[in-house]
């Protein structure tokens, strides 16, 4: 089951440029939460702070507190590797491991962490591919084809299956459908709809209709600040902040 | 684009049929010229290799027989004899060189690509580039000073050390280059799964770049396989069987050198045969490694 995410006083920098200012957010468990905002507003940086991917960028640093369930993400005894095992991530561009078969792509998270029980791996791979609605399309070429040989939409679902295979509690999605055609996009959205029953999902999106379709909660970012965070319905019909209204009505961004 | 000859401007006057034909002809001729130039250059690259190989076959094949691969060298004037000990010695020396040079070179390449920032990395890159340009005989002297002098005798080991050192800079720089070609998104995918950094580097990044790394290793291998100068005062050569890496050892390039500088016609013919065998062994080794590597493409994530 998913767990909630609590963010307090989060500030993030790239070198001397501040990217996030005093973000506070309570992401509810087992719901989808959308992060919207214009390009460069810090959406991606924000979710990359949740699974400690931010610190992989050179000269990047941050201050503040993030909790995933009861885990202190930036606590003294918490390792980045441990955090990332519990917080899955799907990236903007599909990024299957090109040198691995479809099967190995899905099994990678377990295998590379030293888990080698064949029978269990088979089960996990099949279950994850089913959840990602990809099983029927690839079941005959699991070990024959490279992950990179699939179409873009299939690759992205493969990446989702790969993230699901390690059974994370929270799933972060950074514009998962922005590089896909409308049919693949609707498949991914359907998937998010099903996944949020079991996982806490945070999805960054440029597409406001997408946010309205899949998410119960929406946060609006502007220039590194969280302007408004509320139920999606409220954000899109009756926002409290003028800037949110300007953005969703298309006056800028 | 200004003066774009291909796209007609919206307000450009219609071309007459004869103008259009002329334009078509010009495009066709230009296309043929450019294609022809590329083909010519490709042929020019392959030609010297084929010429060398063909000449070696013509001059060397007459001296090849079973004894050449199974017997020891014989003195001038005697019939028969071969270079079996030199072939085995070369395999041994190249094996030692690869054991030293491959992990060392790949390791340094990984460091440069994945962690290499700042002045130490700059120094390392500079050192590797300089080392690449150091004459091979100087590397031989280094191995002589390090291994031969301290052991007080020549050996396959010291030859392997010399050739191993020569492999390192080539492999290091090429490994760095091909690792940097692996997109950051692939690394991030591995990190995002909670895979430890070292494991992601070895099992994902290095594996993704494996074809390039193998090419780098084979290039370095092919380059050192024919080296003679560093072996002159390290492996030294040997007219007899030797399987002890700690003893003076024969090697094909050394044997070739001895035969080639001799004043005897018979030995000159043997030198051609040595050269042919050396080239075939190198090509064979490179091809075998490529074959094995390409078979292992979609195996487990280990």
SSE topology sketch:
The complex is a heterodimer of chains A (253) and B (302).
Chain A: E1 5-14, E2 17-27, E3 32-36, H1 43-50, E4 60-68, E5 71-72, H2 80-86, E6 87-90, H3 102-111, H4 118-131, H5 135-138, H6 152-165, E7 170-174, H7 182-195, E8 200-204, H8 208-214, E9 217-222, E10 225-231, H9 232-237, H10 242-248
Parallel strand pairs in A: 3-8, 3-9, 6-7, 7-8
Antiparallel strand pairs in A: 1-2, 1-4, 4-5, 9-10
Chain B: H1 17-60, H2 66-70, H3 84-115, H4 118-133, H5 136-151, H6 156-181, H7 184-192, H8 197-208, H9 210-225, H10 229-232, H11 252-260, H12 265-295
What does this structure look like?
With 253 residues, chain A is α/β, with parallel strands linked by helices. Chain A has one domain: P-loop containing nucleotide triphosphate hydrolases (Rossmann fold), CATH 3.40.50. Helices cover 36% and strands 25% of the residues of chain A. Chain A has ten helices and ten strands. Chain A has helices spanning 43-50, 80-86, 102-111, 118-131, 135-138, 152-165, 182-195, 208-214, 232-237, 242-248, and strands at 5-14, 17-27, 32-36, 60-68, 71-72, 87-90, 170-174, 200-204, 217-222, 225-231. Chain A has a six-stranded mixed β-sheet with strand order 6-7-8-3-9-10, sandwiched between helices. A four-stranded antiparallel β-sheet of chain A has the order 2-1-4-5, covered by helices on one side. In chain A, helix 3 (102-111) runs parallel beside helix 6 and helix 4 packs across helix 6. The radius of gyration of chain A is 18 Å and the shape is globular. The two termini of chain A are 36 Å apart. In chain A, 49% of the residues are buried. The mean pLDDT of chain A is 91. With 302 residues, chain B is an all-alpha fold. Chain B is 73% helix and 0% strand. Chain B has twelve helices and no strands. In chain B, helix 1 crosses helix 12 and helix 5 (136-151) packs across helix 6. The radius of gyration of chain B is 26 Å and the shape is flat. Chain B starts with 16 loop residues before the first helix and ends in a 7-residue tail after the last helix. The model of chain B is unreliable at 298-302 (pLDDT under 50). The interface between A and B is medium-sized, with 37 and 26 residues.
């Amino acid at each position: 089951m998913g767990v909630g995410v609590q963010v307090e006083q989060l500030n993030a920098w790239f070198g001397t440029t501040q990217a996030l200012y005093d973000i506070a957010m309570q992401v509810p468990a087992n719901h989808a939460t959308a992060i919207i905002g214009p390009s460069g507003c810090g959406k991606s940086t924000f979710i990359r702070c949740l699974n400690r991917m931010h610190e992989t960028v050179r000269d990047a640093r941050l201050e503040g507190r993030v909790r995933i369930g009861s885990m202190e993400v930036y606590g003294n005894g918490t390792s980045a590797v441990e955090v990332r095992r519990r917080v899955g991530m799907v990236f903007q561009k599909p990024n299957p491991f090109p040198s691995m078969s479809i099967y190995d792509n899905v099994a990678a998270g377990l295998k590379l962490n030293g888990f080698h029980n064949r029978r269990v791996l088979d089960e996990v791979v099949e279950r994850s591919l089913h959840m990602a609605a990809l099983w029927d399309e690839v079941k005959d070429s699991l070990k024959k084809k490279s992950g990179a040989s699939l179409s873009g939409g299939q690759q992205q679902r493969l990446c989702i299956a790969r993230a699901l295979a390690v059974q994370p509690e929270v799933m972060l999605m950074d514009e998962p459908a922005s590089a896909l055609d409308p049919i693949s996009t609707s498949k991914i959205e359907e998937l998010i709809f099903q996944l949020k029953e079991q996982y806490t999902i945070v999805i960054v999106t440029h597409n406001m209709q997408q946010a309205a379709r899949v998410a119960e909660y929406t946060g609006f970012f502007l220039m590194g600040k969280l302007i408004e965070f509320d139920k999606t319905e409220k954000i899109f019909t009756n926002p409290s902040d003028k800037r949110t209204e300007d953005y969703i009505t298309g006056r800028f961004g | 684009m200004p003066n774009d000859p291909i796209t007609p401007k919206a307000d450009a006057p219609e071309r007459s049929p004869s103008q259009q034909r002329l334009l078509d002809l010009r495009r066709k001729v230009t296309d043929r010229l450019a294609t022809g130039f590329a083909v010519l250059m490709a042929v020019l690259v392959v030609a010297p290799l084929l010429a060398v190989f063909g000449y070696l076959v013509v001059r060397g094949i007459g001296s090849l027989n079973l004894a050449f691969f199974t017997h020891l060298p014989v003195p001038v004037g005697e019939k028969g004899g071969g270079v079996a000990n030199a072939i085995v010695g070369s395999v041994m020396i190249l094996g030692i060189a690869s054991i030293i040079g491959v992990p060392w070179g790949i390791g340094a390449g990984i460091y440069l690509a994945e962690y290499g920032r700042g002045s130490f990395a700059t120094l390392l890159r500079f050192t590797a580039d300089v080392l690449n340009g150091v004459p091979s005989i100087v590397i031989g002297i280094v191995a002589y000073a390090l291994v031969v002098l301290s052991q007080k005798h020549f050996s396959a080991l010291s030859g392997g050390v010399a050739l191993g050192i020569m492999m390192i800079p080539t492999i290091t720089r090429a490994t760095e280059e091909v690792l940097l070609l692996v997109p950051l998104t692939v690394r991030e995918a591995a990190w995002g799964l909670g895979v430890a950094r070292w494991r992601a580097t070895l099992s994902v990044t290095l594996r993704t770049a494996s074809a390039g790394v193998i090419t780098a290793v084979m290039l370095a291998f092919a380059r050192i396989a024919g080296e003679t100068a560093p072996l002159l005062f390290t492996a030294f050569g040997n007219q007899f069987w030797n399987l002890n890496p700690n003893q003076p050892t024969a090697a094909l390039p050394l044997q070739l050198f001895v035969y080639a500088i001799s004043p005897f016609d018979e030995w000159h013919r043997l030198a051609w045969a040595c050269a042919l065998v050396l080239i075939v062994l190198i090509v064979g080794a490179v091809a075998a490694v490529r074959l094995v590597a390409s078979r292992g493409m979609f195996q487990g994530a280990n």
